[in-house]
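Cross-posting from the chemistry board since nobody answered there.

I work mostly on the small-molecule side, so proteins are not my area. We synthesized fe (ii) ion and want a rough idea of how it might sit in this target. Sequence and SMILES are below. Is it possible to get a predicted 3D structure of the two together?
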Amino acid sequence: MAIFEWKDEYKIGIPAIDYEHQDLFDFVNRLHDDFIKGCEKGEIEDCLGDIHARMQAHFALEEKVMRDRHYPYFAEHKKSHDAFLDEFVETMKKFRSDPGLAFREELEQELKDWIVDHVLHEDRKMSLMAR
Ligand SMILES: [Fe+2]
């Protein structure tokens, strides 16, 4: 069941980016399903690895759009992407040593909060200012 629901208000108006944002929501929902099903640690790790890879590819797309459009806040936006990826790598390491339920919930919540906040604020700002 999807607990991380995509809403039209999350669209930023750049179709390729909107499409990938929706895809990221799907991946977080898949992670949630894995948690619910009580998947093995290894399967969760694979799912986290997929999310990391998707995020990396997605940030590369956003950064290309920003560079192409000479977005004035490129540096700070990229910094936020890099910080997220660094944190996510730490989270994956933490999961390896503490795959318990409490940490799963915390991880899922953090992931959702970060994505929604980033999409609604930084990505929207980019789409408005980088035309
Ligand atoms: Fe972004």
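Reply from a structural biologist on the board:
Welcome over. Reading the output above for you: The mean pLDDT is 92. Residues 101-129 form the longest helix (29 residues). Happy to explain the token format if needed.
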